[in-house]
Amino acid sequence: MNVRYAVLGGLRTDYVITAEGEVILGEHGGNAIYAATGIRLWSESVGIVGRVGSNFPENWLTDAEAAGLDLSGVHRLTTWQETRTFFAYLPDGRRDDTDPVRHFAARGWPMPPELEGYTSSTVDFDSLQSNPLSLTLDDFPPSYRQASGVHVAPYDLRTHLDVVPALAELEKPVVTLDPNYGYARPERANHIYSLLPYADVFLPSELEVSRLLGHIPIGEAARHFAQQGARLVVVKLGERGSLVFDAKEDTPWHVPAFPAQSKDLTGAGDAFCGGFLVGYVESGDPVKAAMFGTVSASFVIESQGGLAAIHHTRHEAEKRLQWLLAHRPPQIV
């Protein structure tokens, strides 16, 4: 059976220090899992394209399948691969994925032995050379090739350069692209711009925008990406929601966030992208799609772990969508 939505991305093991100082060790994560969860809240048909090493926990793949995700696009390699992610959320809203020793010591915690040898979650993601975890269109199984929508989550630059243009070979799915912070820098700008005409929607975070373009107004940044070939630009603004810019209409919209009770921010942006994809495929309206994404993100931040929010139903999601429409409607900015 063909899947309706496919997510290309990483399956990881998360180690997190929240902004409140809570320590979360060895959680099932990865942007592919969170984005797929964001889709699964709205649709029962979603599959993942990815690769894991011989060291990846088998029971986590089993759990993901039991939760309703199709993993026929996930390939296990015979070699050990680095798929650990560490995040320390800082009081100012930023997060650091390096130097766990320093962050744990600052809170009086010993360094977890599971993070021994860890350097960064984005190591090699800026490289133009492929690595064992890099993906190509060949990684898409036949059942994914007629998907209505494909979300390309943050991954290594080589994968994005290979896969995003190649998706045009499929049955013209809606393609959404979330760039990787690891390569979002001025030296890679032309590579990023080369991808924009092939993606229906470009979904950077505010942090990635500022790293790439400097501290310029978000609306100005969105218009800049449109001038480089992006048809739709959606900038994720964290707790402030998102900005949606339609190049054709030359109009920026602000879509507020849902007032969720935050427990762990990990994966919120990925879940937003997943929800957005469903909303855009179903409605063709990018502003309404951003509200779908906002709802998906709200469920994820109220839970802990990549699959924790997946049990919520579309009925629950629709209720939050209606609340947003009634109490925090989008506005032109």
In short:
The protein is of the alpha/beta class and 333 residues long. Helix content is 32%, strand content 20%.
One letter per element, helices H and strands E, the order comes to: EEEHEHEEEHEHEHEHHEEEHHHE
Mean pLDDT, to the nearest integer, reads 95
Structural classification: alpha/beta
Ends distance = 43 Å
Assembly state of the chains shown: single chain
CATH homologous superfamily placement: Ribokinase
Q: How many DSSP H or I helices?
A: 10
Q: How many E-type strands?
A: 14
Q: How many independent structural domains? A: 1
Cα shape: globular
Described by strand count, sense and barrel closure, the largest sheet is: 10 strands, mixed
CATH architecture: 3-Layer(aba) Sandwich
Q: Roughly how much helix do the residues carry, as a percent range?
A: 25-40%
As residue ranges, the low-confidence spans are none
Keywords for this entry:
alpha/beta; UDP-N-acetylmuramoyl-L-alanine:D-glutamate ligase; four-stranded mixed beta sheet; 32% helix; 20% strand
Task: Describe the overall structure.
This protein is an alpha/beta fold. The chain has one domain (5-332): Ribokinase (UDP-N-acetylmuramoyl-L-alanine:D-glutamate ligase, 3-Layer(aba) Sandwich). Helix content is 32%, strand content 20%. It contains ten helices and 14 strands. Strand 12 and strand 13 form a beta hairpin. The protein starts with a strand and ends with a strand. The mean pLDDT is 95.
